[in-house]
Structure formats: structure tokens, C-alpha cells
Specification:
By secondary structure, this protein is mostly helical. 74% of the residues lie in helices and 4% in strands. Helix 4 runs antiparallel to helix 7 (147-157).
């Protein structure tokens, strides 16, 4: 994709995240091209790419619309994720970390600790932290040794909106809090404390979901205010 096409993708993606392109909005190629001062070709390519990401729906002869994601959708998914992630931590504690797994988790936590020490949250920190965070949680699921559970967790993670907004309102304080929770989880796993591991991981997941719900609720309220329609209760 061309540089202009990538810029259009970024602008539209940001617009979906902050409510400038609300769920159900029709994506008019001509209007978008005029807004960003580009031809219709990069816009068409951008819309196709965003549809592939799951952020847009395509209907033949009708075009692209923004996929609808509601606060209730997030709430329902995280009710499931909280239980699944907690169960994975419980099973991991029952199995116990292997020497290799323990060493890897300790290294991941050491790397994250250095990010926390920077006391900031910016693109550089985020791009370094995200793969470390993903690997740490993947290691917990691998240690649980239940591929069916891991697959169910993967499905609850494959929600396009989540990747778009999960880290949008993150900051240095939340990074430190996340690190503290990861350290507590590591301690529970290392000492083979299943109930404690479940509680720590379930609460960790719940807090992540609650932040997304609170912030997306505000975004939805702003959308309804602009439209002059009542927000959902």
C-alpha cells in the first residue's frame, strides 16, 4: 500500500477509535478523498484494508460501513475473558512453571521493569511493551497445558475494536500497575498457588475490561450528543 494509503488507514482507524466515524456510518469514498486531499484509489485501498482488519463491513452494491461495537459487547466478552484467563492462571499454577518458563517470565518482567522506570507512556514505550505483555500472558496459557482453553481465550481476543482502543487510554501509572500485577501473578505461579493465581489474573483482566468499558462509554456518549440521540442506559 502507498504511503498515502497508509496515512488514510491511520486517519480512519483513529476516527473509529475516537468516534468521528461511529458504528454504522457509511464510508463515502468521495467525501473521504476530499477530506484527506487524496484521490479515490488510496481511499479504496484503505477501506479494503480496514475491512480485512474487521473494522468495516462491506456490502456489495452498498459499500463499506463502520462495524458496530457497543459497551455491552465489550462487557459480555470480558465477563467470559475474566473467567477464562483466571482459569488459565489456576491451571498454570497447578502445573507449575518449568525452569525454562520461569526464566523466561523473569526476563520479561525485568524488561518491563526498565520500561516502568522510564516513567512515561509514548509510542516507543508502547511498541516495546506490547509484545512483552502478549508473550507473558501467552506463557501463562502455555503453562496451563490446555489447548482448548487457549483457543477459547484467543477467540475472545480477536475483536478488532479491542486492539484499536485497548491501549488508547493507557499511561505510565497504568503501566506500573500492570507490572505490579504481573509480579504478583509470577509469585503465585512460582509458588504453585492456584487460587491466588486465579484471583490475581481474573482481577487483572477485569480491570482491563473495566477501563475499556468506561472509556468507550464516554466515546458513545459523545457520539450520541453530537447526533442529538439518547445514549443507551
Amino acid at each position: 500500500m502507498s504511503t498515502r494509503g497508509q496515512q488514510v488507514v491511520r486517519h480512519i482507524r483513529d476516527g473509529i477509535a475516537d468516534g468521528r466515524f461511529p458504528g454504522g456510518s457509511r464510508m463515502n469514498e468521495v467525501e473521504i478523498a476530499e477530506r484527506f486531499g487524496v484521490s479515490r484509489t488510496p481511499v479504496r485501498n484503505a477501506l479494503s484494508a480496514l475491512a480485512a482488519e474487521g473494522l468495516l463491513d462491506y456490502t456489495p452494491n452498498a459499500g463499506y460501513t463502520v462495524r458496530r461495537f457497543t459497551v455491552e459487547d465489550i462487557s459480555r466478552i470480558f465477563r467470559v475473558r475474566t473467567e477464562l484467563e483466571g482459569l488459565a492462571a489456576r491451571l498454570a499454577a497447578e502445573q507449575g512453571l518449568s525452569p525454562t518458563g520461569e526464566a523466561e517470565m523473569r526476563d520479561l518482567l525485568d524488561q518491563t521493569a526498565r520500561l516502568v522506570e522510564a516513567a512515561r507512556w509514548d509510542d516507543e514505550i508502547r511498541e516495546t511493551f506490547l509484545p512483552l505483555n502478549r508473550r507473558l500472558h501467552m506463557l501463562v496459557r502455555e503453562t496451563a497445558q490446555n489447548p482448548f482453553l487457549a483457543e477459547m481465550i484467543r477467540k475472545t481476543n480477536e475483536v478488532p475494536l479491542f486492539d484499536l482502543i485497548r491501549w488508547r487510554w493507557f499511561d505510565a501509572d497504568l503501566l506500573r500497575q500492570s507490572q505490579d500485577e504481573h509480579l504478583e501473578l509470577f509469585d503465585a505461579l512460582r509458588n504453585r498457588q492456584p487460587d491466588r493465581a486465579y484471583r490475581i489474573q481474573a482481577e487483572h483482566t477485569y480491570r482491563s475490561g473495566r477501563r475499556m468499558i468506561e472509556n468507550w462509554s464516554r466515546t458513545e456518549a459523545e457520539i450520541h450528543a453530537k447526533r442529538g440521540t439518547p445514549a443507551q442506559a
